[in-house]
């Protein structure tokens, strides 16, 4: 085996501080049931020689292998994910004096940022000897699990809400995964999936219910840091928030960078949610410790239809510690932003990604983003699977209802 | 203006050797009407310092800016294109002793390799002061032109055959391009588009009818060379051939590398075409100097529905000089290959890209690819816009007809 040089030490719960051994498969904290976090021996990283060695590594997220949990390179199931571009955007009329950047994960394998988490989690699952994985998903995560499980030669079962867009169901099946369609929202589908799987030996790959998808998502933060080394970190990062791992992951990356003495000021993290499914934004406004489930959620952005994200304590913590906040947008604003990004900047964004652009007006109006600031918007997925006319029809239908 | 260091010298026709000034907009050879090629002052490139400087450049194809035609970096309209991964594939039962690699352009902006040509051609068009561009397209090229024209702030008109998949028509419109749907094949649409545009001032961006899309495509060859520096060039490259610029572009890259003293043996280039639209393969078999138009063409792979590629002299030359050849596949084999790549390797390929995988059986059977060889397949586009059930229905319908 060729070692990756991973500095993984152990797993740790950030709520009750329980420590868990890392080299056996682990889900949530055995004490309190919340998310476990990977801890690395950062003191063993020699920054100078490490950052010099990065120059000659391929651009995939595996370039950060010392800070990822996989110990042997043979276990890595990669489709070339990571290293997505940071694009300058033209000045938006809604925020004329703000310098906009867009980190575009639309070109990642399977068309979304979910590839980041799944390449790491599936590779680690293979290394730990797991032979069968399942995930409840709004769509993209299920497709990503199916692709990486196929790459790794592991069985996968994907549980999807019946109303998931058909192309996503088809894609997961194409990769050879078992696809189970269930009624209800992602929350209900998740509960039902876990009850069906029981202790049957298949491993739950749900967001934050296993510790390593977060490590893959963390590379979003590492890449922003590395790609903006010359011009410096942005003042704020605006992120479309469904399950919220991206926020928690970027925050973890920035914490690691701070521990390594490389980051003084953390960018403010803003969570964008659709007005009819905004549990994280509501909890931020109410100063709550955790999210309460959103009743009767709806939005045209499938990845944001998450009424009760798991381990929301960590999402709220990430936003608050960064001195960021929450903001909501309407579905009509999201569709308008898809159009604006395409026409003004030649960018094809998913509805989720476009939601960040849609939020600029409110962020500027409320003084949370100020003139002269540099703001990075995160596009989490490709616009290719979405039809603009179908999105517009959905908005019109919901306005008429 | 910040100079790119472009070593562009002039344009040249490879058929009649006419030289054309490069710093004015130019289409085809004014003498013989065939494609013009960009010529660079390669002697002025100091290989040692140049290749060292590549280490610190972003991964986009603009890293090769000295060998691209754009002189000022302000003109560059980029969406982060290039640097696509080269993935090892598992051994295919159809070619068990062949080591397979897949270069995957599915994650490029707008979902296909067309981004390579258009980022360069549109940037150069902007630099040369062109304000309005048009292209007849089977779909992907039109979408790419629309996106890059939006990025560059230039008007674009896209002419598409009526039977182009709807998502492509919609995407081109979303970027703000004027979309004109016309009856017939791409050949007929092209003729009609050129007659409508006449001398109206809009510039024809058709494959090989303007000299700089080829320069963008050339980066496919440069990337393969750079990404496989450690293990060496593949023995063969298998490429899905519609307009054929990719073959001509890779061949040009390898010629440049040879001129620079960096390449001894050129990989054999194989052109894959569908059995019912195989003008290039037929011309290769008949040892013809140029392609004759294919009557009544049909295939499920829209990018391969090109019955009479322009400047086919250059395509045939590239294949012959590399000691490669042509191979056909059926639509059913293409769909089977889409499935196999997804299940065996976790790869989502376009039908065009999957055609290369489908051709392995014939290439091995005929002894054109041999045991122990390393073969690179080129996936030119994302599988995301395609539905496997629709592809299968199309095959079944055509079998029944």
Describe the structure.
Two copies of one chain form a homodimer. By secondary structure, chain A is α/β, with parallel strands linked by helices. The first copy, chain A, has helices at 47-54, 114-127, 140-152, 166-174, 186-197, 213-227, 245-259, 279-285, 312-321, 331-345, 351-358, 360-365, 388-400, and strands at 8-13, 19-20, 36-40, 86-88, 99-104, 132-136, 155-161, 178-182, 203-204, 236-240, 268-274, 325-329, 374-379. Chain A contains 13 helices and 13 strands. In chain A, α2 packs across α6 and α7 (245-259) crosses α9 (312-321). Helix content of chain A is 36%, strand content 16%. Chain A has a six-stranded mixed beta sheet with strand order 4-5-13-10-11-12, sandwiched between helices. Chain A has a four-stranded parallel beta sheet with strand order 8-7-6-9, sandwiched between helices. In chain A, strands 2-1-3 form a three-stranded antiparallel beta sheet, with no helix packed on it. The model of chain A has no long low-confidence stretch (mean pLDDT 96). In chain A, β6 (132-136), α3 (140-152) and β7 form a beta-alpha-beta unit. Chains A and B meet through α3, α4 and α10 of A and α3, α4 and α10 of B.
